[in-house]
Amino acid sequence: MVSLPAALAGGFIGTLVLTTGLRAATELRLTRIDLPFLLGTVFTADRTRARAAGYALHFLFGLLFASAYYLIFAALDQASWWLGSLLGVAHALFAATALVSVLLPLVHPRMGTQFSAADSAPLLEPPGFMLLNYGASTPIAMLVTHVVYGAIVGAAAAA
Amino acid sequence: MAADGSIDWLCLPDLDSGSVFGAILDPQRGGAFRLEPIEPFSAERRYLEDSNLLETTYRTSRGTVRVTDAMPLPLSGLAPTRELVRSIEGLSGEVAIRWSVEPRFGYGQGRTHIGRRLGVPVADAGPEAMAVLSFEAGEPQGSADAIEGQFTAQPGVQALLALSMAHGDPLVFSPRSAIERRTAETLDYWRRWSRERSYEGPWREAVVRSALALKLLIHAPSGAIAAAATTSLPEELGGVRNWDYRYSWIRDSSATLDALLSLGCPSEGEAFFWWLLHASQLTHPQVNVLYRLDGRAGLPESELDLSGYQGSRPVRIGNAAAPQRQLDVYGHLLQTAWLFVEAGGVLSADTSSRLASTADLVCSIWSDEDSGIWEVRGLTRHFTQSKMMCWVALERACRLAADGHIPAKNASHWLAQATAIRRFLSDWCRSSERDSYMRFPGASETDAGILLPTLIGYGAGEERERLLSTVRNIRAELGSGLHLHRYRGEDGLPGQEGAFLACSFWLVDALGRLGEIEEASELMEGLLAHSNDVGLYSEEIDPASGAFLGNFPQGLVHLALINAAVTLQGESH
Question: Among the three residues B132, B164, B187, which one is the final residue of a domain in this structure?
Answer without folding.
Answer: B187
